[in-house]
Amino acid sequence: MTEYQIHTLPNGIRIAHRQVAHTKIVHCGIMLDIGSRDEQPHQSGLVHFWEHMAFKGTKKRKSYHIINRLESVGGELNAYTTKEKVCFYASALDIHFDKTVELLADITFNSVFPENQIEKERSVILEEMSMYEDSPEDAIQDEFDEFIFSDHQLGVNILGTREHVKSFTKKDLQEFIAQNVDTSKIVISIVGNIPFKRAIQRVGKYVADIPFKSVDYKRTEPFEYQTTHTSFEKQAVQAHCALGRRSLSIKDESRLAFFTLINLLGGPGMNSRFNLSLREKYGLVYGIDANFTSYTDTGFLGIYFATDPVNLEKAIKLIYREMKLLREKPLGEVQLRNVKEQLMGQLAMSEESNQGYMLSMARSILDLGYVQPLQQIFDDIRNITSADLQNLANQYLNKEEFSSLIYKPALN
Question: Using the 8-state DSSP alphabet, how is residue 72 labeled?
Fold first, then answer.
């Protein structure tokens, strides 16, 4: 599989491309370096609202025509919002590549936000919020962000608040886009059996006329972290628990080693330290995971699980015990080799997804300016030492620096 290529248009928009033979599907995405953290407090939820409204009408299409454009030929059109990105993307047979690029460009740059559609989508998003609120495992993770990034937009739910969602107008959307869209912070990502020259030509046809625009804006760093411990009663059968703290930013040189450490603790493998202890040995949980998320200027480590309320304290003690073991006892040679091999295998399998690679390629170019080859990542993983992991464990796996949020079943 060939490495990626980049072409920058005169307006600053970058085209990232990777040609993959032996596939009939092409994956395309337009990713903008704008997320919920870039909203002002009174705008909370506006980027997510924009993501929804992009599908509701453009200068030449109504909502139905947008939805039907690719669906009618077996393709898929979608979008998502994160704390630092908004992305519109699609997958279709490569014979519909031109149609796919044109549609993505249309909804990204030519949305008109019809007033009648705003009212309908407002109700849809409010229902989406209710859905998350009814799911303790989702709600606790969103609410926990508020504790880790108190009084900062990184701590605000991507969906925003009900009050804000009820108040958004067409003018709010237009003003936010005008104030925040920077063409040098837009990447159009393509993965499929499409020649690079053709990709540049077809994308250029639809976005080259977009005027260059630079935005003088710098993200505000989070305030000083302070630990917080809170519990609430919720209508639930199990106790739900979130533990976590601030961690490493995207550009931190120790990020890969830290990711390796967290993968060992609570990654997707059934042989993670947390799973072997809490589920396999003691039978306290159905599942437990540890997540490490990096942002431009900070990071977040979160641990989540649910258990019978009578087992809550025991489960928490076991988690901290596993972290203590990593602080005090270095991994042996065989353990370290197995940890590295497992992570490399997971990364290699994730790159097998062409759609996943298309999205990660765009994200990496926006964050770092390049995409690190998988082989280089493997080389870096092989260079991680047991001392590296133990040092990071001593810096970031101390119980005293962890915050907690617990949902306890309400007593009837």
Answer: T
Report field, pTM of the whole predicted structure over 0.90: yes
CB 77 within 8 A of CB 125: no
pLDDT of residue 3: 84
Q: Where are the beta strands (DSSP E) in 204-272?
A: 229-234, 239-247
Q: How many Å apart are CA 364 and CA 218, to the nearest integer?
A: 19
Of the candidates 38, 6, 25, 33, the one whose C-alpha atom is nearest the C-alpha of residue 220 is 38
Q: How far is CA 393 from the centre of its chain?
A: 24
Are the C-beta atoms of 300 and 293 separated by less than 8 Å? yes
Element (H, E) at 315: helix 312-328
Strand ranges of the sheet holding 5-8, from the earlier edge strand across to the other edge: 5-8, 14-19, 186-192, 25-32, 86-93, 76-81
- Taking CA atoms, 337 is separated from 175, 344, 349, in Å, by 53, 11, 18
Beta strands in 119-257 (DSSP E): 186-192, 229-234, 239-247
Helix (H) or strand (E) holding 257: helix 255-266
DSSP strands (E only) in 112-264: 186-192, 229-234, 239-247
Cα-based distances in Å from 173 to 39, 198, 267, 348, 351: 11, 33, 38, 39, 35
> What is the share, in percent, of the chain residues with pLDDT greater than 90?
94
Instruction: Check the CA dihedral 311-314-320-323 and report its sign.
Output: negative
In this prediction, residue 1 carries a pLDDT of 47
pLDDT tops 70 at residue 412: no
Which domains are seen in the chain, by residue range?
5-207 (3.30.830.10), 229-409 (3.30.830.10)
Q: Which two structure tokens, joined as six digits, stand for 406? A: 């617990």
Encode pLDDT of 150-171 as tens digits: 989 999 999 999 999 999 999 9
DSSP state of 378: H
Integer Cα distance of 220 and 206 in angstroms: 33
Q: Helix (H, G, I), strand (E, B), or coil: what is residue 117?
A: helix
Q: What is the mean pLDDT of residues 169-175?
A: 97
Which pLDDT belongs to residue 89? 98
Q: What are phi and psi of 289, to 5 degrees?
A: -145, 155
**C-beta of residue 25 within 8 angstroms of C-beta of residue 94:** yes
* 139 has a pLDDT exceeding 70: yes
